Amino acid sequence: MNTDKLSKRLETVAKYIPRNARFADIGSDHAYLPCYMVKRNDVHFAIAGEVVEGPYQSAVKQVKQEGLTSKISVRKGNGLEVIEPNEVDCVTIAGMGGTLIATILENGKNKLKDSVQRLILQPNVSASSIREWLLKNAWTLVAEEILEEDGKIYEVLVAEKGDSYSLYESNKVRTLLFGPFLMKEKNAAFVKKWTLEKKNWQRILTQLDSAPESEENTQKRKELQEKIRLVDEVMNNEDY
C-alpha cells in the first residue's frame, strides 16, 4: 500500500469521501488516505491527525515527500481535538476498534455539530458500538459495506446528520448487531463473518455447560443463545 494504491478497505473508505470535501483523517498513520485523495484532486484540503509520535512523524515525512504540505495539514493530538470548529465537512476514522471510534466521536462531538456533514468509519471489530453511538446522537447510516482482505473482514459505515430511528424499527438489537444495509445484502463476507461468530459462540456455550453454575454464567449463556438465534434468523430470512 502507498499513496497511489490503497488497501481494499481504505479504497472503500475513499470512495465515500465527497468530491471537493475538506476532510480530516483521524488516526492517519502514514497519511496514505489524505495523500491519495489530494493527489487525485478529489478534495480541497485534508487534515491527517495522529496521537502517537511515531505515526505522526511518519505522516509528516510522507506529506513532505509527496510535496503536499500546502494541501495536507499533519497534526498531533487526541481524536477530534486536531480539528477546529467549522474546519472540515467530512471525518474519516479507520483501522480501530468500534468502541474506540465511538469514544473518539463522543469526546469530540462538539467538533461535529456545525460543518461536519459526513462520517466514514471503518472499525476492525464491534461495529455495533458505532451504530449505537450514531443512533443516540442523531446521525443516520446512509451506506454500509462489508469486505474481506488478507483473511480479515472489515465493515465500513457511512453516516450523515439525521434521525435514524426508522432504520431500527423492526428490531433494534438485531439491526445494531448486523447493520441495516448489510443484513439485507448478505454478501459473502457477511455470511462468512457471522458463520464464524456463531461457531465461536457455540464453542463458548459448550464450555459454559461444564462451568460452575452462577448468575453470571447463566446470564452469559442467555446472551449467547440469543445472538445465535439472531444469526439464524437473519441468515434464513430474505427480507433482512
Q: Could you characterize what this model shows?
A:
This protein has 240 residues and is α/β, with parallel strands linked by helices. It has two domains: 8-171, 3-Layer(aba) Sandwich (Rossmann fold); 188-235. Helix content is 43%, strand content 22%. The protein has helices spanning 8-15, 32-39, 53-66, 98-107, 127-136, 172-178, 182-185, 188-209, 215-235; strands at residues 21-26, 43-50, 72-76, 90-96, 118-123, 139-149, 152-161. It has a seven-stranded mixed sheet with strand order 3-2-1-4-5-7-6, with helices on both faces. Helix 4 runs parallel beside helix 5 and helix 8 (188-209) packs antiparallel against helix 9. The two termini are 35 Å apart. The mean pLDDT is 93.
Summarize the structure.
The chain is α/β, with parallel strands linked by helices. 43% of the residues lie in helices and 22% in strands. The chain has two domains: 8-171, Vaccinia Virus protein VP39 (Rossmann fold, 3-Layer(aba) Sandwich), CATH 3.40.50.150; 188-235.
